[in-house]
Amino acid sequence: MSNTPHNLSEEFPGQLDKIHALKVSNPSFAQLLIDYDEVNDEIHVAETNVQPTSHDHETELRRRRLAIKDRIAAALSN
Fold it and tell me: Superkingdom of this entry's organism (predicted)?
């Protein structure tokens, strides 16, 4: 487990300009970014034990983050 946040700038290096352009032009993509940040923050809180959670719940949060990240990657590849 890592308690380092998975910021999009680290996950998609060199693509911040494209992320920003999609964010302002595509409301669905903008919502993906919001969803990613929310679940990423929940994971960070769980990892740092600020708000302890079950292993199963943390695993589910990680799956959700990965699914959102995959959707972001797909949008960036178009």
Answer: Bacteria
- 7 assigned to some structural domain: no
Q: How confident is the model at residue 4 (pLDDT cuts 50, 70, 90)?
A: low
What count of Cα atoms within 13 Å lies in the side-chain half-sphere of residue 71? 15
Give, rounded to a whole angstrom, the gap between the first and last alpha carbons of the chain.
32
CB neighbours of residue 24 within 10 Å: 10
Query: For the chain, what is the domain count?
Result: 1
Residues in the chain: 78
- Domain residue limits at 53: 24-77
Contact (Cβ atoms closer than 8 angstroms) between residue 30 and residue 23: yes
State the pTM of this model: 0.88
- The answer to whether residue 47 sits within a structural domain is yes
pLDDT (mean) for 25-29: 97
